[in-house]
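[SOLVED] Need 3D model of a two-part complex

Original post:
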Amino acid sequence: MLRQVHSPRVDAVMAAERAATFTKRSIKKSSKMAGLRLALSTLDLTTLEGKDTPEKVRALCVKAVNPGTGQSDLPDNLPSVAAVCVYPSMVKFCKETLSELGALGRVKIASVATGFPSGQYPLDVRLEDTKKAIRDGADEIDMVINRGAFLSGKYDVVADEIRDVKATCLREGPAVGRPIALKVILETGELETLDNVRRASDLAIVAMEEAKRDAAERDGETERRRDGVKAKENGSANGTHAALSDPRSLDASMPRCLPTFDFIKTSTGKVTPAATMPVTLVMLEAVRDWYLQTGQLVGVKPAGGIRTAKQSLHYLVMVKETLGSLPAVGTSVDDQHPGGWLTPELWRFGASALANDILRQISWLHTGKYRAQYDVTEA
Amino acid sequence: MTTADTNAPSLSSAPTSAAKPAKPSKPGWDYSPAPETVKVDIASTYGLFIDGKFQTPRNAERFATLNPATEETLSEVTQASDADVDRAVKAAHAALPKWAGLPAIERAKYIFRIARRIQERGRELAVLETLDSGKPIKESRDVDIPLVAAHFFYHAGWADKLEYASGKASRHQGIKASSGKKLLPEVAPGVRPVGVCGQVIPWNFPLLMAAWKIAPALACGNTVVLKPAETTPLTALRLAEIFEEIGLPPGVVNIITGDGRTGKALVEHPLVDKVAFTGSTEVGKRIAKATAGPRPDGKFKRLTLELGGKSPHIIFEDAAIDQAVEGIINGIYFNQGEVCCAGSRLFVQESIVEEVTKKLEIRLASLRVGDPMDKNTDVGAVNSKEQLNRIEHYLSLGEKEGATLRRANASTLPKKGYWCRPCFFTGVQPSHTIAREEIFGPVLSVLTFRTPEEAVSRANNTAYGLAAGIWTEKGSKMLSIAKQIKSGVVWCNTYNKFDPTSPFGGFKESGFGREGGVQGLKAYLEV
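Solution:
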């Protein structure tokens, strides 16, 4: 069946103009400090290099849990970053290090998968890649879409593959006892136009939702069958999915039992341009429209190219002014998210160099002095 | 440092209170106040700028100019009497032959110097503009003042190229005297200045309107008597200081302050050759009457009028809706809606009216209304008590006539000052007063249409014709609709774009004559 995509068109000139207005806000003093802390807490601290080693990844994890370690010029209650983001082969080292630090589950492990960054591998390999990463300890999967299929108009292929990966996450999650979030990387630098960005966003959001619906239906059937057979045996049999979809029923030993939301993500970081403000704006608008239509929350993750604290504040301004006023007009985002999308559950920065620039700025706000680059610890 | 408890993200703790738990405040993240810190000196009183110097007439009547955001008096300015107007016009008249006779390149240098000085003193002018008018500093800093400088730069370039503006680039011919009086010198082959220009400008873009009027007049070799609006005279007076600074010859530009009486004396003065007015249609009609007959010397007064508007914004179902909503917001809430070309009538194709309304509400809620001196303010104070009353009158009239007022914005407003939260009406019918009369405030009327033909006929169903906006991603439709709209400006997939190279002006009761571009020079030239 050929998939029809009816996405709104995007005017690139006006979108760029709107995006530029977010850079004009004056963020100073306490709002700057709060913004920088927020940026830090929503960071996916990333290393995605061919030369990554277990030791490099351990350093990354230590930094992720305590970004201010060993630096007296920083306030001592800095938040951890949201997640570390690594290649699948590095996931197990993240798990080791984070559990040593007692931060497993609090700092999430995000793994790129599905033949990152090109995605040019057979589907079964990509799905296996996903499964392996989850079994090794990944909480979040950053998948790449099939850009070749997208650009040749085979939207059904793109959507089906996203659905398959999401279905893998939904199947594997219960097996490892934690919900798995999926981030769909659109690689907007290769899609080029904002019309394409919007279309791919809508496609990804709908495909993930379809996978969830399919899984729920399958569960329903299994349950009905099981209920039929074992009704007398065990009255309180709960489907694992049901348990996982209600965060409050999760195992109490898990430190932060927040619901997991799926994301759409701009880039792999391997293609230029990576994240830009107009692209991210269009994705935020897609997420907002989905929310207005269905009441469902989807997160957004710009990745690549965001290197400075100032840039990160510009992005936060954009999130605030694009999605922040939703509660104000009576469409209240659920109680868990009084600040709208400004939470690690719904917003992430994918970056590696950003963390240290944020720390330098925080240090400056805290002490009134600028630190040299070598004063900030490397990850 | 421990890893267990202290790592919970605590987002709102400032550096000073890092140890204390963050106090419960509004959820999410908000901007701290970001006040513009540049201070400007404002004299307690101002005289009139006549013949190159500030003069204070004896026994002069004075009036206060207020900061509309605080209701505090900023300064007291002089009410120019008929005698003062007469002196100013005579000074302009006396300066005329020499100014018009300057080599074009010399005139250009003066105008160029004005532009440079405006840039150099840009921040000061922006702050003063915001204090006197109530518009947000963001706009005076990023829109008004840069455009002011751009207008002077652009017209400095025209001064020695006027034969290209007049269409006389290749043939030299004299013009016949109509009165037997000595002719003004030619500023280009076959091209002469009009003479003394009496210019009366409004309070919504005080310095920008002064630039629109003064720059082309000077480039074409005319001299000027300018009267700024009584609520916003301070930046025009500061511009007079710049004229002094750069050594503009005395009498070339005279700036006199006062209310409608001063304006009346100026436009009716027999030595004024050309009147340029920007303001309300009502006053424009009175000026048209007053300047209609011949002067004592038999010559006619030239006139250009840039008046009110009720500009339509048409959004089709195939528009890029999120960007169109941005354009609508910018079109009506820019400068508190106190813009003659504000897109105050929104026509939405019926199939998308729900979506557009919802998105307007969401976007409206994110606008920051309040202290105009805060760099993050989007909508500032209404210019005067009188104007606020007028807006409120229309708000209650709109509800009385059956439209639904949607106030999605909940900004906390300061206690003093003149404030109107941006809002819009839905369920507006073409016959409602709020869909017909110019409100000149942050109030949008949302109407609907079903077909392109209906969009055009509804958009044109107005006494005005200043500007229009069209939103569609379909090029052929855009071009065909743009041709059918009766207005001086049609913006396609954008709005409120101003540029000195592009002519601006109206159809019907929005006035006549154009300002800006080569077309704008025609009003200041005898060819």
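Edit: Chain B has a mean pLDDT of 92.
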